[in-house]
Amino acid sequence: MKRNAAKEMLNKTSTLLLLSLVLLLVQCSNLIGKAKEKKVELTPTSDTAMETYRTTGKLIVQKSFETLSGQLLQAIKTGGVPHALQYCNLKAYPLTDSLSEAYQVDIKRVTLKPRNAANQADPFEKSLINTFEKLAVNNLAGVNMVVRDNEGLPVFASPIVVGKLCLQCHGEKGKVIADTDLKVIERLYPDDQATGYREGDLRGIWRIRFQETQ
Q1: Cα(3)–Cα(128) distance, rounded to whole angstroms?
Q2: pLDDT (tens digit, 9 = 90+) per residue, 3-28?
Q3: Domain residue spans in the chain?
Q4: Which of 21, 101, 207, 209 is deepest in the core (most CB within 10 A)?
Q5: CA neighbours within 13 Å on the CB side: how many for 67?
Q6: Is pTM, for the whole model, over 0.85?
Q7: pLDDT tens-place string over residues 83-107
Q8: Strand-strand pairing, 106-110 and 154-161
Protein backbone atom coordinates (compact mmCIF):
# COMPACT_ATOMS: atom_id res chain seq x y z
CA MET A 1 0.00 0.00 0.00
CA LYS A 2 2.76 2.42 0.90
CA ARG A 3 4.53 1.67 -2.39
CA ASN A 4 1.33 2.33 -4.39
CA ALA A 5 0.72 5.63 -2.58
CA ALA A 6 4.28 6.78 -3.19
CA LYS A 7 4.01 5.82 -6.86
CA GLU A 8 0.73 7.73 -7.23
CA MET A 9 2.22 10.79 -5.54
CA LEU A 10 5.23 10.68 -7.93
CA ASN A 11 2.93 10.51 -10.95
CA LYS A 12 0.92 13.52 -9.77
CA THR A 13 4.12 15.53 -9.17
CA SER A 14 5.44 14.67 -12.64
CA THR A 15 2.13 15.70 -14.20
CA LEU A 16 2.16 19.06 -12.40
CA LEU A 17 5.74 19.72 -13.46
CA LEU A 18 4.88 18.91 -17.09
CA LEU A 19 1.87 21.23 -17.04
CA SER A 20 3.95 24.02 -15.53
CA LEU A 21 6.57 23.58 -18.22
CA VAL A 22 3.94 23.71 -20.98
CA LEU A 23 2.41 26.90 -19.55
CA LEU A 24 5.85 28.51 -19.31
CA LEU A 25 6.62 27.69 -22.94
CA VAL A 26 3.27 29.12 -24.08
CA GLN A 27 3.87 32.38 -22.20
CA CYS A 28 7.38 32.75 -23.60
CA SER A 29 6.09 32.08 -27.10
CA ASN A 30 3.45 34.80 -26.71
CA LEU A 31 6.04 37.33 -25.50
CA ILE A 32 8.39 36.58 -28.40
CA GLY A 33 5.51 36.91 -30.85
CA LYS A 34 4.54 40.32 -29.45
CA ALA A 35 8.15 41.54 -29.63
CA LYS A 36 8.43 40.50 -33.27
CA GLU A 37 5.11 42.12 -34.11
CA LYS A 38 6.23 45.41 -32.54
CA LYS A 39 9.50 45.43 -34.50
CA VAL A 40 7.73 44.89 -37.82
CA GLU A 41 5.41 47.84 -37.13
CA LEU A 42 8.21 50.32 -36.35
CA THR A 43 10.79 49.62 -39.08
CA PRO A 44 8.88 50.74 -42.23
CA THR A 45 8.03 54.14 -40.70
CA SER A 46 11.69 54.90 -39.98
CA ASP A 47 12.85 53.81 -43.45
CA THR A 48 10.23 55.91 -45.22
CA ALA A 49 11.17 59.01 -43.24
CA MET A 50 14.87 58.61 -44.01
CA GLU A 51 14.18 58.24 -47.73
CA THR A 52 12.26 61.52 -47.60
CA TYR A 53 15.35 63.22 -46.17
CA ARG A 54 17.47 61.65 -48.91
CA THR A 55 15.22 63.01 -51.66
CA THR A 56 15.09 66.49 -50.10
CA GLY A 57 18.83 66.50 -49.40
CA LYS A 58 19.69 65.68 -53.00
CA LEU A 59 17.46 68.53 -54.21
CA ILE A 60 19.02 71.04 -51.79
CA VAL A 61 22.57 70.04 -52.75
CA GLN A 62 21.73 70.33 -56.44
CA LYS A 63 20.24 73.80 -56.04
CA SER A 64 23.06 74.95 -53.74
CA PHE A 65 25.74 73.66 -56.12
CA GLU A 66 24.09 75.31 -59.12
CA THR A 67 23.89 78.63 -57.27
CA LEU A 68 27.47 78.56 -55.97
CA SER A 69 29.09 77.25 -59.17
CA GLY A 70 27.12 79.72 -61.27
CA GLN A 71 28.41 82.61 -59.18
CA LEU A 72 31.99 81.32 -59.40
CA LEU A 73 31.85 80.92 -63.18
CA GLN A 74 30.54 84.47 -63.48
CA ALA A 75 33.40 85.69 -61.27
CA ILE A 76 35.96 83.89 -63.46
CA LYS A 77 34.46 85.41 -66.61
CA THR A 78 34.57 88.84 -65.00
CA GLY A 79 38.12 88.84 -63.65
CA GLY A 80 39.71 85.42 -63.96
CA VAL A 81 40.78 83.10 -61.14
CA PRO A 82 41.97 85.91 -58.83
CA HIS A 83 38.51 87.47 -58.93
CA ALA A 84 36.92 84.07 -58.20
CA LEU A 85 39.24 83.65 -55.20
CA GLN A 86 38.18 87.05 -53.91
CA TYR A 87 34.54 86.06 -54.38
CA CYS A 88 35.00 82.82 -52.42
CA ASN A 89 36.76 84.67 -49.65
CA LEU A 90 33.96 87.20 -49.22
CA LYS A 91 30.74 85.65 -50.55
CA ALA A 92 30.78 81.85 -50.49
CA TYR A 93 30.09 81.37 -46.81
CA PRO A 94 27.33 84.06 -46.58
CA LEU A 95 25.75 82.49 -49.67
CA THR A 96 25.65 79.08 -47.95
CA ASP A 97 24.06 80.71 -44.89
CA SER A 98 21.38 82.34 -47.03
CA LEU A 99 20.60 78.99 -48.68
CA SER A 100 20.33 77.38 -45.24
CA GLU A 101 17.78 80.00 -44.25
CA ALA A 102 15.85 79.61 -47.50
CA TYR A 103 15.53 75.83 -47.11
CA GLN A 104 15.20 75.88 -43.30
CA VAL A 105 18.11 73.45 -42.86
CA ASP A 106 21.77 73.68 -41.84
CA ILE A 107 23.95 73.50 -44.97
CA LYS A 108 27.72 73.12 -44.74
CA ARG A 109 30.57 72.24 -47.06
CA VAL A 110 33.22 70.54 -44.94
CA THR A 111 36.59 68.96 -45.60
CA LEU A 112 39.64 67.51 -43.88
CA LYS A 113 41.89 69.98 -45.76
CA PRO A 114 40.19 73.38 -45.50
CA ARG A 115 41.01 76.60 -47.25
CA ASN A 116 38.66 78.54 -45.03
CA ALA A 117 38.89 77.38 -41.40
CA ALA A 118 35.10 77.55 -41.15
CA ASN A 119 34.93 74.54 -43.49
CA GLN A 120 36.95 72.26 -41.18
CA ALA A 121 35.06 69.02 -40.56
CA ASP A 122 34.15 68.21 -36.95
CA PRO A 123 34.58 64.64 -35.63
CA PHE A 124 31.12 63.55 -36.80
CA GLU A 125 31.62 65.04 -40.27
CA LYS A 126 35.10 63.50 -40.43
CA SER A 127 33.56 60.07 -39.93
CA LEU A 128 31.25 60.72 -42.91
CA ILE A 129 34.17 61.77 -45.11
CA ASN A 130 36.17 58.72 -44.06
CA THR A 131 33.22 56.52 -45.00
CA PHE A 132 33.11 57.98 -48.50
CA GLU A 133 36.89 57.55 -48.82
CA LYS A 134 36.59 53.84 -48.05
CA LEU A 135 33.95 53.19 -50.72
CA ALA A 136 35.49 51.28 -53.60
CA VAL A 137 33.55 52.95 -56.43
CA ASN A 138 34.84 54.58 -59.61
CA ASN A 139 32.50 57.58 -59.39
CA LEU A 140 31.51 59.01 -56.01
CA ALA A 141 29.33 61.69 -57.57
CA GLY A 142 26.20 59.51 -57.44
CA VAL A 143 26.76 58.25 -53.89
CA ASN A 144 25.09 59.70 -50.80
CA MET A 145 24.03 58.69 -47.31
CA VAL A 146 21.42 59.55 -44.68
CA VAL A 147 22.35 59.05 -41.02
CA ARG A 148 21.52 60.52 -37.63
CA ASP A 149 24.02 62.72 -35.82
CA ASN A 150 24.97 62.65 -32.14
CA GLU A 151 21.80 64.59 -31.27
CA GLY A 152 19.59 62.21 -33.23
CA LEU A 153 18.89 64.68 -36.05
CA PRO A 154 18.78 63.37 -39.63
CA VAL A 155 21.77 64.31 -41.78
CA PHE A 156 22.16 63.97 -45.55
CA ALA A 157 25.72 63.80 -46.91
CA SER A 158 27.02 63.72 -50.45
CA PRO A 159 30.61 63.98 -51.74
CA ILE A 160 32.30 67.01 -53.26
CA VAL A 161 34.46 65.65 -56.07
CA VAL A 162 37.27 67.68 -57.64
CA GLY A 163 36.46 68.62 -61.24
CA LYS A 164 38.81 69.89 -63.93
CA LEU A 165 37.86 73.52 -63.35
CA CYS A 166 38.54 73.15 -59.61
CA LEU A 167 42.22 72.36 -60.29
CA GLN A 168 42.94 76.01 -61.13
CA CYS A 169 42.59 76.76 -57.41
CA HIS A 170 43.02 73.33 -55.79
CA GLY A 171 45.48 71.48 -58.04
CA GLU A 172 49.20 70.91 -57.58
CA LYS A 173 51.42 73.90 -56.83
CA GLY A 174 53.92 74.66 -59.54
CA LYS A 175 52.10 72.48 -62.07
CA VAL A 176 48.43 73.38 -62.38
CA ILE A 177 47.98 76.45 -60.18
CA ALA A 178 49.47 79.53 -61.84
CA ASP A 179 52.10 81.34 -59.75
CA THR A 180 50.11 84.58 -59.77
CA ASP A 181 47.01 82.74 -58.53
CA LEU A 182 49.02 80.94 -55.88
CA LYS A 183 50.19 84.29 -54.50
CA VAL A 184 46.56 85.40 -54.19
CA ILE A 185 45.67 82.16 -52.38
CA GLU A 186 48.57 82.58 -49.94
CA ARG A 187 47.57 86.20 -49.26
CA LEU A 188 43.88 85.48 -48.68
CA TYR A 189 44.37 82.13 -46.93
CA PRO A 190 47.72 82.00 -45.12
CA ASP A 191 46.81 78.65 -43.50
CA ASP A 192 45.50 77.06 -46.71
CA GLN A 193 45.56 73.25 -46.91
CA ALA A 194 43.38 72.82 -50.00
CA THR A 195 45.92 72.18 -52.77
CA GLY A 196 47.51 69.09 -54.29
CA TYR A 197 44.27 67.57 -55.57
CA ARG A 198 43.77 65.72 -58.83
CA GLU A 199 40.64 65.43 -60.92
CA GLY A 200 38.23 62.93 -59.37
CA ASP A 201 39.62 63.24 -55.84
CA LEU A 202 37.27 63.59 -52.87
CA ARG A 203 37.47 67.21 -51.77
CA GLY A 204 34.95 66.99 -48.91
CA ILE A 205 31.19 66.67 -48.46
CA TRP A 206 27.95 68.59 -48.49
CA ARG A 207 26.39 68.13 -45.06
CA ILE A 208 22.67 68.92 -44.75
CA ARG A 209 21.27 68.73 -41.22
CA PHE A 210 17.48 68.68 -40.92
CA GLN A 211 15.31 69.65 -38.00
CA GLU A 212 12.74 66.94 -37.20
CA THR A 213 9.91 68.52 -39.19
CA GLN A 214 9.37 66.24 -42.19
Answers
A1: 76
A2: 444 445 444 444 333 334 333 333 43
A3: 63-209
A4: 207
A5: 17
A6: no
A7: 889 878 878 878 888 889 989 999 9
A8: unpaired
